[in-house]
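Suppose a colleague, Dr. K., hands you the sequence of a protein chain of 315 amino acids and asks what its three-dimensional shape might be. Before reaching for any lab equipment, you can write down a predicted structure in token form. Begin with the sequence itself:
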Amino acid sequence: MTAREISKDKINRFLLGTREREGFIKQVVVYSLLICIGFIYIYPVLYMVSSSLMTLEDLLDSAINWIPASPTFANYIQAARSMSFWKTLGQSVILAGIPTLLNVISCSVIGYGLARFEFPGKNFLIGLIIFSFILPNQITMIPTYVLYSNLNILGTIWSFILPSSLGMGLNAPIFILIFFQFFRQVPKVLIEAASIDGAGYFRSFIRISMPSATPAILAVFLFSFVWYWNEAYLTQMYVTGVMTESGWTSLVIQLDKFAQNFDAYATNAGSFATSLNESISMAGTMLSILPILLIYFVMQNYFVESIDRVGITGE
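The predicted structure, expressed as tokens, is then:
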């Protein structure tokens, strides 16, 4: 080959790539698409942060779009006070955390039983679980409300604790299927070796299956926590109470009632509070999602690994 041919071959391999390495053109296309898609998702958050730091003068100034002229955290202070932030945050963690832990325990037990034992009607039961997942919540909402009313647990956290402890929590069917699929991948020889050593079903489950199911546990925990955290309608219906007000609330519910709560706060605060504007509303919205964002940033590496190993996709 001549020097010109060798140079042309190097340029082609650099641009188009080889079997071992991706080409420059493909990398540019892929990363450009990722940047565009990422910007679409992150744009609302960036706009929210920018607006929440603006004063009323910045909002009215048409020359200011993104960077506030005089950033201020006063909007966050007023929004936090109107939402009773710290008290509501504690209740939100309890309302999302306890049912999530019970979801992980109950769904892992059910998934393990379906994966390790053969019994009549097993396939029918799995199909019933899948059907209950695709069944809209609106269909079972009224019967569930009547059941909870008969059990006298409306307006209490038991409306979330009792179902989740029985494997019937929020979106529990998909969690059962996650554990079922994961426990099927655990080698049976490990269970058989443990039984030869005298370990029973429960001990094999605790000592062998559960430690190897860490990715599934983490994925279920994060998904369940986020879903319970963001659930406003069922929380208002079952826990907060429709007919009677209980002492329970959450940041999402407080955000839904933000204008009403802020008006009450402004009336009590007098001259220390300003009128409700977009910046204060954005600050309240940011406060409601901030705990979830912090959890994701802290656990993102473990979360991505767990999603990869469990096999959850967006399809």
